[in-house]
Amino acid sequence: MGDGEPNPASPLSRQTLERLQQRSDARGLARLAGHLAIMGGTGYLTHVAIERGSWLLALLAMSALGFTLATMFAAMHESVHRTAFRSQLLNDTVGWFAGLCSFYNSSFYRPYHGWHHRYTQLAGQDPELEDPKPTSVASYLLELSGLSWWYGKLKTHGTLALGRTERYRFLTEATARRVVRSVRLQLAVYAGGIAWSVALGQPYFLLYWFAPLALGQPWLRAILLAEHTGCSLSSDALSNTRTTYTLWPVRFLMWEMPYHAEHHRYPALPFFSLAEAHQTLGPQLAQVERHGYLGFNLGLLKSFSSRTRAESAHD
Length: 315
Known about the structure:
Blueprint: H1 14-20, H2 25-52, H3 55-70, H4 72-80, H5 88-102, H6 106-118, H7 137-145, H8 147-161, H9 173-200, H10 204-228, E1 243-244, H11 248-253, H12 260-265, H13 274-281, E2 288-289, H14 292-314
Parallel strand pairs: 1-2
């Protein structure tokens, strides 16, 4: 899944970097509008299919809607980096809304993700490593199902809503208070959506948020696995993170996150600058998956089989 060793030289000049780091409210809003338009279109198709009683079509439409909901994680990710928009207010507002859609919380994710960037792939320090990567077909399928993700999110949201923040070492006293308020508000919005559905006697919350997100989550899991799985356990951004070539619709809904090594090397770059950065940085990356997310996941499964055969031969 890798492509050789990286060149340690910094490839982008100061002038190029300053140009690429320029943020844009217009470009951020255009991407958000496109994402929401696709969400609205798939939501409408889901509604039509349900109204017609075509459950196979409804399942397909709900899966598509779910992918647009799950990939709002990427919009939140860009917003917490404050690279989605020039305006901090837009970043904070859109980030919170995107987290609401995708069942993340932007207030919590910002310090959590800050530590991930600071300590990427460093054991005992990178909080992402607390969620173990799959090492077998069984653990891989569990990861893709989203069950462990749902459990983790429910546990974390519940713990934070109760004001228990001491286990999260990346939270300060000030950020902890902010996170607790934010999570409580988020859970209140969900509760309001459930109450509204019950009052109307219609399973709207289930059909247009929970079920679609559950169907869309496995696709996001497969994408996010490619970011660091099998990469070096070092601080070198050119080898500890993977860039994955993929189709334009996926790049669009993922807010260019497939250029993930470029993002880790230069986290201040807005999403729309990553493709240009890749033109220069690409040849220096140790981990580039040229066969897309399908290629990465098939390669990962193959590595499990190879490991199992090797272990059997050793025994």
